Fold this protein.
Amino acid sequence: MPLSDPSPAEPLHVSARVPEAPAPDGPGPSPSAAPGAVGDDVLDNPTWSSLTRHHRGLAEGNEHVLRYPEDVSPFVGIRDWEHPDVWDAILDVFGHGAEVGVSHADPLLPAGWTPVFSIPGVQLVQTERLVPRPDEEAVELGAEDSAEMLALVERTRPGPFLPRTHEMGRYVGLRRGGELIAMAGERLHPDGWTEISAVAVDPEHRRQGLASRLVLDVAFHIQERGDSALLHASAANTTAIAGYEKLGFALRRRLTFGAVRTP
């Protein structure tokens, strides 16, 4: 499944503000992290870090290229885009004529490789302003809730979410009359960090602060186990970005989400 827009479909319940862009030649200075936060170098290549550490049990591939199972996530970890064997290693894992996710990098493609799409994005990290808290109404979601989660994703399109994406971390939701109307959870787990993802609220229940509540709940449990929280979003989703900033996240870098096709 190709990568799709990683932005949350539900804008957080705060006023919009466009973040200040970092210098165009690379990441801006890292924001002040919350007490206990670890270094952020791994966030330059979070998928590789995740697949070689916390998610190594889900990893498929070789010494240069790792991927998640097709029904878990389309994200791909590349050890080093500059290594001379990386393109052969990608072919070894994906084969010919395959669509391969590319993020956090903008490699120069060899002859025969073609771009499929490219979406400008942003990476946000927690700061000392973030004050997470558990939500008493939030319920943990798992395999038995997969069909409902997929249906909510289909209605809201928060980004890539597949039948086993819930295995990447803790997912929580809110219900009304037994129906799942909102959810959020954990995706990438680079060393010392956890990504908050799949922030989705049913269109009929928006503008009630449900997305903010779930983000703060997920962040609370991330910090409880000693990790720091990060987020990714489409750069075009300025309302959601402003909402995350209001909660206590800050822009770390701009990046690109996309895919290429192998020859």
In short: The mean pLDDT is 88. The chain is about 20% helix and 25% strand. Residues 210-224 form the longest helix (15 residues).
